[in-house]
Structure formats: structure tokens, C-alpha cells
Amino acid sequence: MEAFFSSTLAVAIAEIGDKTQLLALFLAARFAQKNAIIAGIFIATLLNHFVSALLGTWLAQFLSPDMMKWIVGISFIAVGLWLLIPDKEDETDSRWLKYGAFSATLVLFFLAEIGDKTQIATVLLAAKYQDTVGVVAGSVLGLMLVTVPVVYVGEMLMKRIPAKTIRWAACVLFCILGVLTLSGGGISL
């Protein structure tokens, strides 16, 4: 359960203000079919984070526990510091929009999530906890918890929560996870 709760919290915080959340806002403004957008986000995230968690679990098999502790701990701190850098608004590839809300969301969200902070976090969490199912379930839930509201009431939320505050909170969370990992401790929620 620790992998599930830690993944949910870490990914939810990292996703706020992220480029994929901005993409969800764009898609919600473009398409009226909100449920199709949410389904596309869910499936794209599930696929992306499942592959990421498998990679993290696989990598952990080849490294000693001490080496994994250092790699994961330092990586958590690096991701935390990376979160302080605001995402640039990428131009959405409009050629996918002609395929409708679900297909456009599925493709664009999957592509946007590649190399994203939440994908890297999922790899690291899976390596740390060695629990693919718990990490995938938690990371997908965390992403959906903060992305679904954006689809419905995004503009209002983005005006009320300063992106800088969210980036700092996420940075602190990941740095704490890194320090706890390096010290041999865990995070209990």
C-alpha cells in the first residue's frame, strides 16, 4: 500500500501545472466530449505508466540494493529540482485533432507524457518499491485526480492556484522522498 499511496501523492503533486495538464485544458476547450477526453487521458496514462513501472522494476533487478538506493534517492532530488523549471507551452500538433476527442487525446497525451516528470517519477517509484501494480495504480490515480478537474473546470482552477507555489511544493516532496531513500527510510502515508 505504501507504493500506491506514495505514487498517488507524488504524481498528483508533480502533475499540477505540468504540460500534460495544460494539454488537457487545451483539449477540453477544443472538444465538447469531456468523457471521451477523460477516457483518452486514462488509457494513455495507463499504458505509459505501465511501461514506465516495468522499466523501473526491471532496472532494479540488475542493481544492488545499495546502488539502487543511491540512484533512486539522487534521482528523486533531481526530479524535485527539475520541477522548479516551468514547462514551456508546446504547440499542440493539430493534425491529430481531426480524429476526434478520444483519439486525439489518446495520441497527444501519450506522446506528451513521454519523458515527462510524471513518467520519470513512475520509473523511480517502481524501482524504489518493486511493486508495479501499486505504482501504476497510484500514479494513474494521482494523475487523474488532478487532471480530470481541469477537463471540467480548468481555467478557474489554474487562476486560483499559483503555479510557482505548486512547483515548490512538488520540489519539496520529491526532495524529501530522495533524502528518505538515501537515509534508508521510507515514506509512510
From TrEMBL:
Tagged with keyword Electron transport? no
Note the superkingdom of the native organism: Bacteria
Its membrane topology is listed as: Multi-pass membrane protein
The cross-references to Pfam families, in alphabetical order and at most eight, read: GDT1
**Keyword Transmembrane on this protein?**
yes
State the UniProt keywords alphabetically.
Answer: Membrane, Transmembrane, Transmembrane helix
GO CC, sorted alphabetically, is: membrane
Q: Highest lineage ranks of the organism? A: Bacteria, Pseudomonadati, Pseudomonadota, Betaproteobacteria, Neisseriales
**Protein's name in the database:** GDT1 family protein
Q: Where are the transmembrane segments?
A: 36-61, 67-84, 96-115, 135-154, 166-187
Read off the PANTHER family from this record: TRANSMEMBRANE PROTEIN 165, TRANSMEMBRANE PROTEIN HTP-1 RELATED
**InterPro entries from the entry?**
GDT1-like
Q: List, in alphabetical order, the Gene Ontology terms for molecular function in this entry.
A: metal ion transmembrane transporter activity
* Sequence similarity: Belongs to the GDT1 family.
Subcellular localization is given as: Membrane
